[in-house]
Please model this.
Amino acid sequence: QVQLVQSGAEVKKPGASVKVSCKASGYIFSNYYIHWVRQAPGQGLEWMGIINPSAGSTSYAQKFHGKFTMTRDTSTRTVYMELSSLTSEDTAVYYCGAHDPPFDYWGQGTLVTVSS
Amino acid sequence: SYELTQPPSVSVSPGQTARITCSGDALPKNHAYWYQQKSGQAPVLVIYEDSKRPSGIPERFSGSSSGTMATLTVSGAQVEDEADYYCYSTDSSGNHRGVFGGGTKLTVL
Model:
């Protein structure tokens, strides 16, 4: 069955970087774009960016330009997101999602906590 | 930057019809999608391409779009439909840039 499995929770200090992985299985990896979305505590969903797993091309929300990077490894069917210069405002659950409706599957979410 | 606007909350009694709106300037050109999110869970797609329903989603969920507004309708809302609902669409850049609305808390009681 289709699964997106994300790496585990992270605790980081302000100014640090974090890298979260999203491993896909159960479908043709190159066929569906992967989105990254985050949700701060008690807040709504925030779209961050999208990567084409086949070509590796990316598109970012303007807010995250220069702070957020997506990459992929086709050999392991894994997509990565890296967020740099972390502040307390980056504390959130980060989700990856394969979105090409009706094909629409999400990872379980990764909590990133930024605290000194 | 592009924005989608939703009401913060909608409240209905069980069996009534709930309507949640989403407004955005690019909606005449780009499809709207609707997600349901229950506390602590990943979002679930309930409507795609304005009005299509994925398999497994109850028929009481429907969607429509006209001009700059998309609407999610829950006909005969049930207690288990209580959740946050988000509209999603893309901007007009052609670069697959997405955006979510601020979310609407649907209360059924």
